[in-house]
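ok so I'm stuck.
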Amino acid sequence: MKRVKGKFEVYGINKLLNYLDSDYEKNVPRVIEWLEKFDKDGQYKNVYKSVRKIMTDSENNWNILLKSIYNEIDVESRHVLMNNFIINASIAGTKVRKSIAEKERCNVPWAILMDPTSACNLKCTGCWAAEYGDKLSLDFDILDRIITEGKEIGIYMYIYSGGEPLVRKEDVIKLCEKHSDCAFLAFTNGIFIDEKFGDEMKRVYNFIPAISIEGFEDATDERRGKGTYKKVIDAMDILKKRELPFGISTCYTSQNVDEVGSDEYIDEMISKGAKFCWYFTYMPIGNGAPTDLMANDKQREYMYHQVRRFRNEKPIFILDFWNDGEYVNGCIAGGRRYLHINANGDVEPCAFIHYSNLNIKNNSLLETLKSPIFKEYGKRQPFNENQLRPCPLLDNQEELAKIVKSSEAHSTDLESPEDVDELVSKCKAVADKWEKTSEKLWNNSPAGQKAIAYNQSAVNNDEI
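replied:
not stuck anymore, here's the structure
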């Protein structure tokens, strides 16, 4: 009965998306009215109110973003991605993942991040992949098996990193073709996005690049190499001309934080056609990685405020993975929402945590989700009640050392294995300062105040 109900729900959402496609501005209010009739308990009352407010304000940034998606993105591309992302990955897949997680007693992630290759055409300052060379890769059959096994347990979202994943762009497209029910995204430097590849993207429709960029021309070329910025902008122009969706991936460091957190930068990326921005902060991963690129507590606080302001003002969807823990209850790694498989096949909790117990070449995907390091992650999450300190390395570094040692995980850096105590020591000074700065932010935030009130209520009930 549950399966039949699920099919009807998916069918209903499909019809809903088609209805919105016909005239989204006219039909969104009608859809809201329709949904309200079924929401007898008023569970999503505030959501409906917010959507109505957005749709009645032509100057609202979310309204402008929605218009740009419907007016600037190819209809077929939008339709395929909304089906794969909303229906398969986020609705139908969620029920399967939840069922498997309960049955197998392990986390089942929403997305899998994997590295088709360690090879890269650039050598960016502070990037661990720059040290690996082109020695490691996951062949097509392994990548295909990961996706096939993932779909069996409800995972329809796949993200590529590296190295530079588009070194393997023919295989990337073949996987998009074979798994046309999945959504694919890649963190890419964008240099391999040429006219031909743009045509291939438009043929398969289910691939979105997140193009790495470090700011404007000087900042990008300083870290990624002279001439890189121009090639990145050329790639964006190719995608925009074909009405294909894309976003940007930006790493903020001590050197570029003022620039990439500025209105001018975000406005320029919007004008180039970017629909989303994923912010990361620099992590000193690997022996010899420079620590002076780490953003300090005041710079991270600056990004905290800027991103929240942008969300109210800019027509672009923005995530800041280190400052947005309050929206996802802390750290999302360790299979809780995602995991990472490196180019050697080692299954890691996170792209920034290079420790593992099992390799995908020798184990099924489900087996790796039950590995000791993943179990340790699951037992300890969230790592801090202050959800502006979500990370077990950068924010709670004693936690990562405990996890790695108790799970007996090994370093996956084949060039120069990194001792976990040495890794966390590099982050200690920054973490200590952020602990104090973030505490003030958390205590004054709506989420923090709600958590404090809840904890105080629990204490009072215990006393009674």
